[in-house]
Automatic annotation (TrEMBL):
Gene Ontology cellular-component annotations: plasma membrane
Keyword Membrane recorded: yes
Organism: Selenomonas bovis
Biased composition annotated in UniProt, kind: Pro residues: 52-63
Top-level taxon: Bacteria
Residue numbers spanned by region Disordered: 42-68
Protein name (record): OadG family protein
Bilayer-crossing regions: 12-34
Single Gene Ontology BP annotation: sodium ion export across plasma membrane
Length: 117
């Protein structure tokens, strides 16, 4: 049997990484070529510049109901955040704070564990 060309792990690493990156670059070129000659892609027909439709005024949002200590400012901020995602005022059904008892329950559990020890 013949002896290996090198036993230096750094040279082997560089050779392997070079091969991997060459293959990745070749795959990227093949993917770009497929996108360029894709026969299933619809041909873009030249479109005439259509006048932009006049923006319709947004429907007035219902007056927020302050329940469970949620201030109208907080509801306005939540509504603005949802509007930035594309939801309209009709999409907001209710704003309710969730109960977060994690710290309270963890403290109780810790206290019970200490008394049992």
């Amino acid at each position: 049997m013949s002896e290996p060309v090198t036993t230096n792990p750094f040279v082997i690493m560089l050779i392997n990484m070079t091969v991997v990156f060459i293959v990745l670059i070749a795959l990227g070129l093949v993917i770009n070529l497929i996108h360029a000659i894709d026969p299933t892609k619809e041909k873009a027909a030249p479109q005439k510049e259509a006048p932009a439709p006049a923006p319709t005024p947004a429907a007035p949002a219902p007056e927020p109901v302050s329940a469970d200590g949620v201030s109208p400012e907080v509801i306005a901020v939540i509504a603005a955040a949802l509007a930035s995602y594309g939801y309209g005022p009709a999409a907001i059904r209710a704003v309710r704070p969730i109960e977060r008892d994690g710290w309270k329950n963890a403290g109780r559990s810790f206290g019970v564990q200490r008394t049992l020890e």
